[in-house]
Amino acid sequence: MDPNNKQSGPSPHYSLYQREVFKAGGTTGQLPTFSVHPEELQESTKKKLNDRGYFYANSNAGLGWTDRANRESFYKWRIVPRACVDTNVRDLTTTIFGHRIPVPIMFAPIGINKLYATLGELIPAKVAGELGIPYCLSTAASQSIEAVAEANEQGASIQNESNSVHQYSGPNGGNATSPRFFQLYMGHDDEITLSLLNRAWKSGFDVLMLTTDTWQLGWRPTDINIANYVFYYPNPVGNDIGTSDPVFMKKHGDELAKDTGKWIDHSVWHGKAHTWDKIKWLIAEWKKISGGRPFVIKGIQCAADAKKALEVGCDGIVVTNHAGRQVDGAVGSLEVLPEIVEAVGNDMTILFDSGVRTGSDVFKALALGAHAVMVGRLYVWGMSHEGEHGCRHVMKSLLADLDITMTVAGYQSIDRDVRGNKDALRYNPHGVPPRGEHARL
């Protein structure tokens, strides 16, 4: 809390963000305009969005039991604090796919961001650039690949304490201030797929992430209740990567006037699953385009699939159940993380996603062996409140939360003291987290 105790170290003192908030309130009466308590933040988002926006961000498959399982899994792992450890200087830095980043947190790929703020994906891309942490762009985005890359560069050019001392090796031998990942929903037209890959690479996205659990949308009753599929409405959002793609537009541009869902139905959620053989083809093509940069599969929930991903040539996996939005009644992602880490953790990079809400959640996923953690709904909720400021406030709060957790729990370094350190946790199989004042969907 003492701003004069900013001893030099590898990581920004993210914890001082809490002091900034306290001091602004105490000296000028300037209070935060919304709560960053996750349950309160989700609840207040209802007042900021119309039903289409709110339910698209928060709907889950079926009864929402998988979403619930994600949170229960975090509840059952408890942090074991250590005493009398010098944590005046923390090292939250880590390396992901050759990029040295200041903290093992990433922006997860979420589509149709214009539902939450007018500028859509330009907002989180810019904030990610400011913070120097990886941003992952969804194929279902409501901005073009090129525009998002430009926003990320704009954010990176803003010199602040969080990123001014960090440099990262970027694609093509250049320097990038934060890594960019491109998340692909792969259709069945290879020409369009290759066009997207080339655009992503030329725009500085140097890690490709294929989502494998969403060939079509899961059964989401709260979306069905209001026919919440914005791609079929007049002036749809979410088609921008398609409408800005020369190959797609040459083949299908004339059809968009009478079928606004042509992009999403043909190239994104097409309902026709691919197999491992097709993924081998995609890996080879991406390696050819990018000069060998990493390929990641998103949607792994068991050790057998993790081993298969390694076998076919994947450099990394994302352990995720799509935040409970695809298969109702499935395992919680944190629940299966230990067995997946045991199976392939020494041979590939493991990213974790689904249910992350707090710095303690990040700590737990890392202690169970993840190399970095992806955050989704949190930043969407923040953006829904106050656009760029709201997104930044939520993410800086999460970074401060993790930094403070490391400090008070007695863990100095992410790579040395936390990652893969099961002694930092204790498992308690009993009970479930209370629902609290605000019931979840």
Automatic annotation (TrEMBL):
Q: Which coenzyme or cofactor does it need? A: FMN
Which segments constitute the FMN hydroxy acid dehydrogenase domain? 30-427
Q: Recorded GO terms, molecular function?
A: FMN binding; oxidoreductase activity
Amino-acid biosynthesis among keywords:
no
Active site per UniProt: 322 (proton acceptor)
InterPro entries membership: Aldolase_TIM (IPR013785), Alpha-hydoxy_acid_DH_FMN (IPR012133), FMN-dep_DH (IPR000262), FMN_HAD (IPR037396)
- Per its UniProt record, what Pfam families does this chain match? FMN_dh (PF01070)
Alphabetically ordered keywords of this record: Flavoprotein, FMN, Oxidoreductase
* Sites where the protein binds FMN: 109-111, 138, 183, 211, 298, 353-357, 376-377
Residues annotated as region Disordered? 422-441
* Record: residues binding glyoxylate: 56, 185, 220, 322, 325
Its family remark reads: Belongs to the FMN-dependent alpha-hydroxy acid dehydrogenase family.
What is the official name of this protein in its record? FMN hydroxy acid dehydrogenase domain-containing protein
Output the lineage of the source organism.
Eukaryota, Fungi, Dikarya, Basidiomycota, Agaricomycotina
